[in-house]
Amino acid sequence: MTFQLFGLPVSRGVAIGRAVLVASSRIDVAHYYVGEEQVEAEIDRLRKARDLVAEGLGTMKRDLPPEAPAELSALLDVHLMLLHDETLTGATKQWIRERHYNAEWALSAQLEVLARQFDEMEDEYLRERKADLEQVVERLLGVLARGEDGASALPAQQRGPADADADPLVLVANDISPADMLQWKGGLFLGFVTDVGGKTSHTAIVARSMDIPAVVGAREASRLIRQDDWLVIDGDAGTVIVDPPPSVIAEYRALKRSRDASRAALARLRHLPAVTLDGESVELLANIEQPGDAAAALEAGAAGIGLFRSEFLFMNRDGDLPGEDEQFEAYRTAVEAMRGLPVTIRTVDVGADKALDRMSANELRHEHALNPALGLRAIRWSLSEPGMFRQQLRAILRAAAHGKVRILLPMVAHLSEVRQTLDALARARQQLDDAGRSYGPVEIGAMVEVPAAALVLPAFLRHFDFVSIGTNDLIQYTLAIDRADEAVAHLYNPWHPAVLQLVAQTISGARAAGKGVSVCGEMAGDTAFSELLLAMGLRSFSMHPSQIVAVKERVLATEARRWSAALPRILAADDPERECALAAGTIAQEKAPAIGAVPVRSATASAAAL
Ligand code: PEP
Ligand code: MG
After folding, report:
1. Strand 305-309 relative to strand 516-519: parallel, antiparallel, unpaired?
2. Which of 91, 162, 266, 587 is at a distance of 20 to 30 A from 73, taking alpha carbons?
3. Whole-number Cα distances in Å, 304 to 286, 297, 308, 519, 548
């Protein structure tokens, strides 16, 4: 049966594929295809794992002390029965045979199918057996992951689609952490759907950085979509069509082709300088998460890296954190890849919706914080781990010997944080001097992402070479809206006059002080704000590489002077979005037609027609 779900559009494009449902707790289970010739070996892995688990359960049952309650023995019997049930192992083999899923993936796919059946059972006792099934599958996954069956999983380089005919896949989950999302980069899935999340949650940001269609905050999606359903994900409209008829699939394929064509047309602007109609040069920079992303930034025509979110180097590390040398290598790789263009490395910004898997004492406290977005995150975390912080600063300073590097500090709100950071930087330099290591000069800047920083900007500017406005957090903290919470996503409004006033004030304040200023939040890559930010005097935008050409197209068609004249009216309006649209209409009437984009048909109309 065809039906449609609505969520928040977070990463553009159309994806059509079969749903792979993954429970949040099993997202790190290995997902890869096995080749035709490996199918039997993979089934053998599963069989051996099942025998080992059965043996373990049998031993447990035999060794139960006489005083153990009778229920325990009965429970082990239930687990043994589930383990041998054809609906688990038999159907899992089918996934391996027919879809070429690896054993772990096949098991978790089948678990999702069975879990639904348990959820729908009338009888409470039977419904509760779902927990037993999950435990049995966890045991099997544990044996497979540890390679206790003697046959290890395929090495990473052998993973990938078994053949080009495999059905395309899209991932559906209740939630995906940014760290888990990162694992899928360059991988198996053509699109993502999650039940929770906001438009500027870090999961959404990583989805955008992967440049694949994604819809978050689709609430019941992981409950309503079934394993293997066909889905159409429209990342522009924020809709998901479940089980679409062939006519709808054909329509979306056509839409996808037309959107791809307009993107390809825009790509021609990549290496043109970004200059407004009245001759103002604009710097378009890239946001990256990993050093390997620098290539895409260059390819997109970025004038440098405006935001390297270094915290992504600290994720998915199974317990350890990157040391100084490892970080140095990562930063140097990015710096060298940018061939003399500036690279702005933001010091680690963990906390809130970006958790590390290693739990230090501080993080444990943070984990239990009532409101992690207001807790020990970003610069606060770094200053509470001074050794780790200096290690990162040393690594960045050393990378600065290989190119132009700027250090950016996240979430600064207090002058005391500025002083402590500058002390840490001085000590890091001293330590490098003492060790006889070479390092380079760096500019140092602060993110303006807490209203307090915007309000005391002159005091901050005395200590910094530049500031970068993190609108994602600035909106969150100005409006008291958790950016990752879909329940209040409708109130997360970049057009709110208070937000716009803080942004405008920061841009003009920094310019008046002769300091550099850029915007590196999602607003910079959203073409709805390009003219307005130019009107505010912004000349440096940092965004995901895939957004650069679209923003450049706007820059090339904008007359900054005219827009600046309209700015006071927009900022004073109760509804700045409407006022901005009115200004755009007036300005368009006054000037010659701009470079036109290939019009893109709205998907909402066709989706709503279902
Ligand atoms: C921001 O807050 O706007 C920003 C760029 O930082 P992040 O999204 O990583 O919090
Ligand atoms: Mg931020």
Report:
1. unpaired
2. 91
3. 6, 8, 10, 14, 12
